[in-house]
Design brief:
about 35% helix
Length: about 240
Amino acid sequence: MIELIPAIDIINGKCVRLKKGDYEQKTVYGDSPAQMAQDFERLGFKRLHVVDLDGAKSKHIVNIDVLREITSTTSLSVDFGGGIKTDDDIEKAFEAGAQMVTVGSIAVTSPTLFYQWLEKYGAERIILGADVRNGMISINGWKDDSSEALLPFLKKYIDKGVKNVLCTEISKDGMLEGPAVELYKEVMREYPELHLIASGGVSCIEDIRRLESEGIPAVVFGKAIYEGRIDLKELVINP
């Protein structure tokens, strides 16, 4: 069974979704991320992906209090990303209750620091964020494109012990046009032991079933939930 991970993206303490990472194309779906997280838990979800979009843009964690409220009011296993740039940032995230952190930009700009975190916290707690635009890794809240191509970028870190990768095809994110299945298949062909988390474009249950049929281990999805395109009761464990 593919691992199902609902997403909560946060701007100004509210639940939002963007289109293709564009902060100017923002839709607000709720005033309380913690309440949203509690609703997901009641439906039977075990994992939650939380992104501090203010943090990603500001290059330091901003919505730490929201993370703390989510982790203190649910038993969900939360992975948290957005603005984790320093030792202080990552320590704050774990102290606020995150079970895992997703780190992308630092893996591009400061590989040595990323390796230090991988060694200190362990591969089970560090998710490598690989946000892709036109085949290249994008950083800093998707505002900047790097010179790193996806597959060599992944290999570099898998060789260092990375086990978990969250891969987002930016052109698909928030568009409800279907996920980048071929991209994820290519990654899994190259690195079959990787715990790959697909992200971006999920529009319906059929999209999730297709990812599952192709052997993708996990999927993050958000907008399809908030837009009512997925009946969560068809997905989760609770009867």
